[in-house]
Every structure is written in structure tokens, then in C-alpha cells.
Specification:
Layout lengths: L1 H13 L3 H12 L4 H8 L5 H40 L15 E2 L1 H15 L3 E2 L5 E2 L1 H4 L10 H5 L17 E2 L5 H10 L3 E10 L10 E11 L4 H16 L6 E8 L2 E14 L2 E4 L4 E11 L1 H6 L8 E8 H9 L12 H7 L1 E2 L13
Parallel strand pairs: 2-5
Antiparallel strand pairs: 1-12, 3-4, 5-6, 6-11, 7-8, 8-9, 8-10, 10-11
Bound molecules: 3,4-dihydroxyphenylalanine.
The site of 3,4-dihydroxyphenylalanine has 12 residues, from strand 10 and strand 11.
């Protein structure tokens, strides 16, 4: 028995992984292990012999089992130590302060607009940038040969040869998200839809990709007065002024009737724009009461529901609020520009905490 003991204790001490240890366990104290077989022999002994050998064998079995589990623990500790050594990290090293990024003015303004409308109960909706011809035009009451299609300088997607369906387009405005939101949610509804839009156009105030935010509010009792109040509240909050005068100018859009373009009172002094005072007017958005054909296209009964919609250029209001003169620079990825016009990444705009501070 001493030989048996010495043999296994030595083997266990020398084992250097889990599976060797497991093999040793089976070999020694498993069902058909050496020690287990010896225990079986107890049955053939005289009672006197058994009284001596029984406790000895049991003690040996216990000793081997404890040696096995002690070794197993030691192996696990060693593995953990090894891992900790490999993953060691000096948290006292100084940070790389010059690498701090900034939030792009478009992202900042989108967050500001979202915070303001969220406070008035509008949810954010999104739609695809590659849009069906139907959602971008027909559903918005712009049929096949309507001049508005040509005015929009649309980018058309490639169409497979022999495919007679109208090609998809890069959406020319966020208005198709009105249709998608009506299809998805029905009425009543209150959503804004910020996002990228595309038109083939390029100069100081136009880039082929730019940003709009659409607004849509439908219910049984919504009037032009609600539109006016909503936009006034928005403009005051966005430009962070107490008083602002809006001018609703009669206009025409296929998807609204009546339609209005909205200007804000402002002044230009020494190239500096001031909102809310002066004798100039600046156009900031298009709006109106949603056309019955548009409601029908979205699956909504115009005899029951009505409401307003508006569409605003995000880049435009960002340029106005933060005095950024050239739109093209927004998308040049010039680090000096981004550092100059960017916003601190942890200052999330909220109405209670301040929009732009
Ligand atoms: N979709 C128009 C554009 O891109 C903007 C617009 C005008 C949206 C009036 C509206 C609206 O929802 O009612 O020029």
C-alpha cells in the first residue's frame, strides 16, 4: 500500500495539466482503478484482516482524492496568474490628450432638433436612403411627368437590363419617410425624420448630399394654427432667443394644400446674423397641411384625419446658428475645420441642460 501511495503522490505532483490529472484519477480511484480494485478484495479477507485493511484503504483513497483536488486548484491558480500577467495594463500611463475627437455640427444640430421636438411629443422615424420611385414621388402627389421631378436633379439607381419598373432613386428629400411612417404606424402620429438626402447640385450653398428633417403631425383636430405654434416654439428653442417673428409666405408643394414657406426675421450686420431682430427675412423651411392624396397613399382616411408637415434643411440652420459660411466645408473632413467647428463629445444637447453649451 505504501508503494501504491508513493507512486500516485509522485505522479500527481508531476502532473502539469488537467487531463493528465483526470487520467490519474481514473487509474487510481476510478471504478476500475488500482485502489478501487484493492478495496474489492476486502470481501475475500477474514473479518480480522478486513478490520485492519479496510480503514487503511479508505485512508489511502481519501489521501489520493485530496492530493488530486489540491493539485487541480494549484493548476487553476497558475492558469489565472498566467492570464493576469498577460493582460496586465498600466492604468497610470498618461492619456493621449491631443486625440480627443469632436462632434460634427450636423450631428450636433440633429441632436438639438431632436431634443426640441421630443419635448413636444414627436418621435424619431427613419427610412431608407435608396428609396422607391413611388415613395419618393408618386405617393407624395408628384405623378410621372410632374415638373417637380425634373427640378429635383434626382440621382437614379442602375436598373437591370430588361427591367421595366421605375428605377429606385437616392431620396431627394425626407418626405418619403412621411409615407413610410403612415404605413407603419397609421394615425394619430407625431414624428420627425432627420436624415441624408441627395441631389445633383454643387456650389457654395449646395452639396450633392445634404441633410433634412421632416415633421409630420396627424390627428382629427390639427390645424394650421398648430403648425404655426409648433414652428415658433421650435425656432425660439433652437436659436436660443426669447422672441422671434415668423413669416408664413403662401407657396406651392404638391404634397401640401395649402402650402407655406416660412421665413424668420433677422438682421445682417457686418456679416453677423442676428435672429429675432432687424429688417431682413430668411427662408428656413417648407410646410403645409398634408394633401388628401398623400394621406390616402399612406393608407389614412382623409375624411377622419388631417395634419401638418414640414421639411427643413439641417445644414442650412446649422450654418445660420453657428455662423459657418460655406456648406462644402462640412464634408471635406479637414481636421482643422472639424476642431474649430466641432462640439465637445460629452455635452449632449438637452432643453434643460442647454442646447449648445
Ligand atoms: N420636401 C420639400 C423639399 O425637399 C420640403 C417640404 C416642404 C417638406 C413642405 C414638407 C412640406 O413636408 O410640407 O424641398
Amino acid at each position: 500500500m505504501d508503494d501504491l501511495r508513493d507512486k500516485y503522490i509522485k505522479l500527481i505532483t508531476e502532473a502539469d495539466d488537467e487531463s493528465t490529472l483526470e487520467d490519474l484519477r481514473v487509474q487510481a480511484v476510478g471504478k476500475k482503478g488500482e485502489i478501487s480494485l484493492k478495496m474489492r478484495e476486502l470481501g475475500k479477507m477474514t473479518p480480522d484482516e478486513r478490520q485492519v485493511m479496510g480503514p487503511k484503504l479508505n485512508a489511502l483513497k481519501d489521501e489520493i482524492n485530496s492530493a488530486l483536488s489540491a493539485k487541480r486548484e494549484a493548476l487553476a491558480d497558475a492558469a489565472l496568474d498566467e492570464r493576469l500577467r498577460g493582460e496586465w495594463l498600466d492604468v497610470t500611463l498618461p492619456g493621449r490628450t491631443r486625440r480627443a475627437g469632436t462632434i460634427h455640427p450636423i450631428s450636433q444640430v440633429t441632436e438639438e432638433v431632436t431634443a426640441i421636438f421630443a419635448d413636444m411629443g414627436f418621435a424619431v422615424a427613419e427610412g431608407p436612403q435608396v428609396e422607391s420611385d413611388w415613395h419618393n414621388f408618386d405617393a407624395l402627389n408628384i405623378p410621372g411627368h410632374h415638373p417637380a421631378r425634373a427640378e429635383m436633379d434626382t440621382f437614379y439607381m442602375h436598373r437591370a437590363e430588361g427591367d421595366e419598373r421605375p428605377p429606385h432613386v437616392l431620396r431627394t428629400h425626407t418626405s418619403p419617410v412621411q409615407i413610410r411612417s403612415m404605413e407603419l404606424q397609421g394615425a394619430p402620429i407625431r414624428v420627425i425624420c432627420p436624415g441624408r438626402v441627395y441631389r445633383a447640385d454643387y456650389d457654395q450653398t449646395h452639396t450633392p448630399m445634404f441633410h433634412q428633417v421632416e415633421g409630420l403631425a396627424l390627428d382629427t383636430d390639427i390645424s394650421m394654427a398648430n403648425l404655426k405654434w409648433t414652428l415658433e416654439e421650435f425656432v425660439k428653442a433652437f436659436f436660443e432667443v426669447d422672441d422671434v417673428e415668423l413669416r408664413f409666405r403662401a407657396s406651392h408643394f404638391p404634397f401640401t394644400e395649402p402650402s407655406a414657406e416660412v421665413d424668420i426675421r433677422c438682421s445682417w450686420e457686418g456679416g453677423q446674423l442676428k435672429v429675432g431682430e432687424g429688417d431682413d427675412w430668411l427662408e428656413i423651411l417648407g410646410s403645409g397641411m398634408v394633401h388628401p392624396n398623400v394621406l390616402r397613399a399612406g393608407g389614412i382616411n382623409p375624411e377622419v384625419y388631417q395634419g401638418f408637415a414640414f421639411g427643413m434643411g439641417i445644414d442650412r440652420i446649422a450654418m445660420l446658428k453657428y455662423g459657418i459660411p460655406d456648406l462644402r466645408a462640412f464634408f471635406d473632413s479637414d481636421l482643422r475645420w472639424l476642431r474649430h467647428y466641432g462640439f465637445a463629445s460629452l455635452d449632449v444637447p438637452t432643453l434643460h441642460g442647454g442646447l449648445s453649451r
